[in-house]
TrEMBL record:
GO terms for molecular function: 3-dehydrosphinganine reductase activity. GO terms for cellular component: endoplasmic reticulum membrane. GO terms for biological process: 3-keto-sphinganine metabolic process; sphingolipid biosynthetic process. It comes from the Eukaryota. InterPro entries: NAD(P)-bd_dom_sf (IPR036291), SDR_fam (IPR002347). This is Uncharacterized protein. It comes from Alectoria fallacina.
Length: 269
């Protein structure tokens, strides 16, 4: 399952002047998505992640991709796995976003067979992949619904949450026991929130929930995974060989986005 799966006919509309939050936006898909499709299309972008140095580097790259110098690009350092810290950070921003992208996660240190990994890796993988997404989505939905009660609007508003999940949510491979479980949880969260979005929507505000399922692509996280990935896992997912060979067979993050169709959530067209 290469690239992204389309999950919504509606897609995500143009970003011009729209505020966007990216939970986990300091590297990989988080950074590439908004360097290529968010900031370059006129969005006001705020990225949230743990490491300030990486955030600052990402912010500089996203700034360079802006359509207009009036676009805001902010970087906030926090632990996305701490719900109260995350909620406070979301609420402290100058703008309430129209779009939340949940991108945080990975399995660079939790990869391995179930009999080989420490029990704590099961917990950390669930925290990094599921709870970071769930906490961000819950906080954002609360902020939006509170705003709906207080705001007077002249035109309807579209509010969207997009989860960047994984093809692992559909297919488990040996070596990914911790990771696959966490991604299945995100898929279940998405399905549930899509139904809850119908309850929250009104003539004044439409809520939509999206989910994308990328498969293997070249990124810094992938390179870390390769160091401890079991040989059986590499054979089954076809990630054996030199880096030069892998780069020929698998897309880099930006290549995935460029190849998405207009109705796919990742394309943001």
């Amino acid at each position: 399952m290469k690239g992204y799966a389309a999950v919504s006919r509606q897609g995500v509309r143009a970003f011009a002047s729209r505020p966007v939050f990216v939970a986990g936006g300091s590297s990989g898909l988080g950074k590439e998505d908004f360097q290529v499709t968010g900031s370059s299309r006129g969005a006001h972008v705020t990225i949230f992640a743990r490491r300030q140095e990486t955030l600052d580097e990402a912010r500089n790259e996203i700034l360079a991709a802006r359509q207009d110098t009036k676009q805001d690009v902010n970087a906030v350092s926090l632990d996305l796995g701490k719900p109260h810290e995350l909620d406070a950070a979301f609420r402290s921003q100058a703008r309430i976003p129209d779009v939340l992208y949940c991108v945080a996660g990975g399995t660079s240190t939790e990869i391995g067979f179930m009999t080989d990994i420490d029990a704590g890796k099961l917990e950390s993988c669930m925290r990094n992949n599921y709870f970071t997404a769930a906490y961000a989505a819950q906080s954002m939905l609360k902020i939006w619904t509170e705003d709906d009660k207080n705001a007077e609007r002249l035109s309807p508003r579209l509010r969207q949450i997009a989860f960047i999940n994984s093809a692992a949510a559909f297919l488990g491979l040996p070596g990914y026991a911790a990771y696959t479980s966490s991604k299945c949880a995100v898929r279940g969260l998405t399905d549930t929130l899509r139904m809850e979005a119908l309850r929250l929507s009104s003539p004044a505000t439409t809520y939509t929930i999206h989910c994308a399922f990328p498969s293997t692509f070249i990124s810094p996280a992938f390179l870390e995974e390769q160091k401890s990935k079991p040989e059986l896992t590499k054979r089954m997912e076809d990630t054996m060989g030199s880096m030069a060979d892998l780069e020929q067979r698998f897309p880099v993050a930006r290549g995935i986005i460029a190849g998405c169709g207009e109705r796919r959530v990742c394309a943001l067209r």
